[in-house]
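Renewal narrative, Specific Aim 1. Our central claim is that a sequence can be written position by position from structural information alone. The example that follows is taken directly from our test logs and has not been curated for this report. It begins with the structure tokens describing the chain, in the order in which they were read.
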């Protein structure tokens, strides 16, 4: 008799209600993960992702919180843990991010702090809590969604480039801390991807600067994330892998 119990594998995707995060939720659900969909405010969008996963036979739950607010993050994750006794979140995708572009000489405090807080402090707020359980279990995957903007710097994005470059640095440091525990930490740095975040950009002009001649799709980013989460990527850690149609090499 086979007495093996198949443990449920949980993946938390911050900013999972729209765009790249939504595609990651759907893709990881197809890989057999039970998905915890985080978002800040758009509960309709979150519910639609949950319904889409369930329609394909997958499992999902909603866990809204603002990644910038350490108390809300701690409260939500404690609530999740209390209702999932004995379980743990083995995959964390730090995807929540915002853009507030301006040239630095005109950038206000709010534009700077909101962008840095969402990407960088948001990474700290979620990861510092979830990593403890991963360390005890000696297993886990952390993927941080960075950007080519953090690798090459883009004008009008000193806040966003700084936050994403910081996230890449944190990825490399944390990877070294956690490798002895069997946990990998990597960054994925997309170029221009078709989502709400890029819907205001002059696409025709930008596409001329991309060797592939087009924006990427959220599904293409999700496929890379799924590979890094899978067993085949067990020896890849501390890397920043860019997915950008040749924009930055
Ligand atoms: P979208 O604007 O389409 O979606 C953003 C998601 O993040 C939403 O689910 C939103 O939820 C959530 N979110 C925003 N702020 C918070 C917060 N404080 N707490 C919790 N959730 C939050 O973005 P994309 O899908 O385009 O981007 C996803 C990630 O990919 C970001 O980190 C972005 O910087 C990065 N990226 C995107 C690129 C692109 O071309 N699109 C290129 C390179 C990197 P809600 O609606 O409820 O606020």
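The sequence written for that structure reads:
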């Amino acid at each position: 008799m086979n007495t093996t119990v198949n443990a449920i594998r949980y993946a938390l995707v911050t900013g999972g209600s729209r765009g790249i995060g939504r595609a990651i939720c759907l893709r990881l659900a197809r890989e057999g993960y039970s998905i915890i969909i985080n978002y800040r405010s758009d509960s309709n969008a979150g519910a639609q992702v949950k319904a889409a996963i369930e329609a394909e036979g997958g499992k999902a739950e909603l866990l809204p919180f603002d990644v910038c607010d350490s108390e809300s993050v701690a409260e939500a994750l404690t609530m999740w843990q209390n209702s999932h006794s004995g379980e743990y979140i083995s995959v964390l995708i730090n995807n929540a991010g915002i853009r507030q572009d301006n040239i630095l000489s005109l950038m206000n405090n709010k534009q700077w702090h909101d962008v840095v807080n969402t990407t960088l402090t948001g990474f700290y707020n979620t990861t510092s809590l979830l990593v403890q359980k991963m360390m005890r279990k000696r297993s886990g995957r952390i993927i941080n969604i960075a950007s080519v903007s953090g690798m090459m710097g883009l004008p009008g994005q000193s806040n966003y480039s700084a936050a994403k470059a910081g996230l890449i640095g944190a990825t490399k440091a944390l990877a070294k801390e956690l490798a002895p525990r069997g946990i990998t930490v990597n960054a994925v740095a997309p170029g221009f991807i078709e989502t709400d975040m890029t819907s205001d950009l002059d696409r025709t002009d930008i596409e001329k600067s991309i060797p592939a001649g087009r924006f990427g799709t959220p599904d293409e980013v999700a496929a890379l994330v799924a590979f890094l989460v899978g067993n085949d990527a067990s020896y890849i850690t501390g890397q920043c892998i860019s997915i950008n149609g040749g924009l930055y090499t």
